[in-house]
Every structure is written in C-alpha cells, then in structure tokens.
Amino acid sequence: EVQLVQSEAEVKKVGESLKIACKGSGYSFTSYWIGWVRQMPGKGLEWMGFIFPSDSDTRYSPSFQGHVTISADKSINTAYLHWSSLKASDTAIYYCARNDPFDYWGRGTLVTVSS
Amino acid sequence: SSELTQDPAVSVALGQTVRITCQGDSLRDYYASWYQQKPGQAPVLVISGKNNRPSGISDRFSGSTSGNTASLTITGAQAEDEADYYCDSRVNSDKHVVFGGGTKLTVL
C-alpha cells in the first residue's frame, strides 16, 4: 500500500527555521516525483515545487523559488520542505503528494507561524 | 499564460448531472487532472489523463477536454460529492504544475 506519512503539526515564531518531512512507503521512492502543495486557511491549492529523489532534480514554482528549499534523502525514502526564516504568511497546511498526476497524498502538516 | 481558471461555485440538484470546467492555454498541450477535497481532508485524485479513474473512484466521475477547456462531469450527483474540486496541469514545457482556483460544488 502506497503511503506518504508527514510530520506532525508545528508552531513556530516569525524568523525561525523549519524543516518538515514526508516519508514514502509501499512503492519505489526513487521512481516518482514528490511534490509539495500549500493550502492557506480557507484558500485553494498552490503547487510549490517537486523533487525527483533518484537524482534530486528539483523544480520550483516561481512564487516559491528562493523562499523554500525542497530536498530528499533517498536512503530513508523521505522528502523535505525547509524554511530558513519563517513569515506569518507561511501559516498553512502543507501537503506532499506523489506525481504525476498527484495520485497519493500525505495527510498534511499544519504550520502555524506567530509573531 | 500559465493560469487555470475555474468557476468559484457550482450547484446541482441531487441525482442530476453537473459539469465543472477548467480553462487555460496549457490544456491545449497537457491533460488536466482533477482532485476532490472535502473539509478537513487531503485532496483525492478522481480523474487523470484523457479520462482515467483511479481504483475506488465512482464511475459517476468522467473527464473530457476540448480546446483549452477541461471538464469534470459528475453524472447523477450524490450528497457525498459535495466538495471542492481542483484541476491541475503541467505547464512550462512540462517543468512546472499549476492548479486552478477550485470550484465549490453544492448538492441541493
């Protein structure tokens, strides 16, 4: 059974760093792109970027380029989304999903950033 | 343009047929995929490619494309189909993905 298990909810302060994780199982982790999708409170889905774990080829949405870093550790079947300095506007649910299409999704990680 | 446009809200009477549309230039080159999202849940893929339903998705759901418009049709809508629906497609020579703004479906 394909599963994407995401890390637990996080509460952080503005300016802090954060890395959230997405662990894949039940399939060949290195054979599929893993994408990250943001959903701000009450809003729609936004594609942030994705990574191909086999060679770490990474693509970013222009809206998120430079604001987050996507990485992967294929030895432990895990993809990551990292912020070096959080903003209050980063408050959202972040989903990872296997691509293409996005056929399996994690349950989401709620990130709350307060000042 | 790399945008996908959806109607914000659509309603359908119980048991009737509804079409949810998604417009964008990228749809002339790439198929849309469609996702259903219910409150408090992660999105679920319902249609991909030309008209492919993942295992476990009701055959009430079907997809089609004409020109720059992709459509998700729900035939005989049920109460459990009430949800937000999003389309997406590849853009930028297949290097990026874009989502539509989403359509809130109400089943009356």
Number of helices of chain A: 0
Structural class from helices and strands of chain B?
Answer: mainly beta
Strand count, sense and closure of the main sheet of chain B?
6 strands, mixed
Overall geometry of chain A comes to: globular
The residue ranges of chain B in which pLDDT falls below 50 over 5 or more consecutive positions are: none
Q: End-to-end distance of chain A, in Å?
A: 40 Å
Tags for this entry?
heterodimer; A: 115 residues; mainly beta; seven-stranded mixed beta sheet; four-stranded antiparallel beta sheet; B: 108 residues; six-stranded mixed beta sheet; 0% helix; globular
Give the arrangement of secondary structure elements.
The complex is a heterodimer of chains A (115) and B (108).
Chain A: E1 3-6, E2 10-13, E3 18-25, E4 33-39, E5 45-52, E6 57-60, E7 69-73, E8 78-83, E9 92-99, E10 104-105, E11 109-114
Parallel strand pairs in A: 2-11
Antiparallel strand pairs in A: 1-3, 3-8, 4-5, 4-9, 5-6, 7-8, 9-10, 9-11
Chain B: E1 5-6, E2 9-12, E3 18-23, E4 33-37, E5 44-47, E6 61-66, E7 69-74, E8 83-91, E9 96-99, E10 103-107
Parallel strand pairs in B: 2-10
Antiparallel strand pairs in B: 1-3, 3-7, 4-5, 4-8, 6-7, 8-9, 8-10
Description of the molecule:
- The complex is a heterodimer of chains A (115) and B (108).
- Chain A has 115 residues and is mostly beta strands.
- Helix content of chain A is 0%, strand content 54%.
- In chain A, the strands form two sheets. In chain A, strands 2, 4, 5, 6, 9, 10 and 11 form a seven-stranded mixed sheet that branches.
- Chain A is globular and about 40 Å long.
- The model of chain A has no long low-confidence stretch (mean pLDDT 97).
- By secondary structure, chain B is mostly beta strands.
- In chain B, 0% of the residues lie in helices and 47% in strands.
- In chain B, strands 2, 4, 5, 8, 9 and 10 form a six-stranded mixed sheet that branches.
- The chains are: A mainly beta (115), B mainly beta (108).
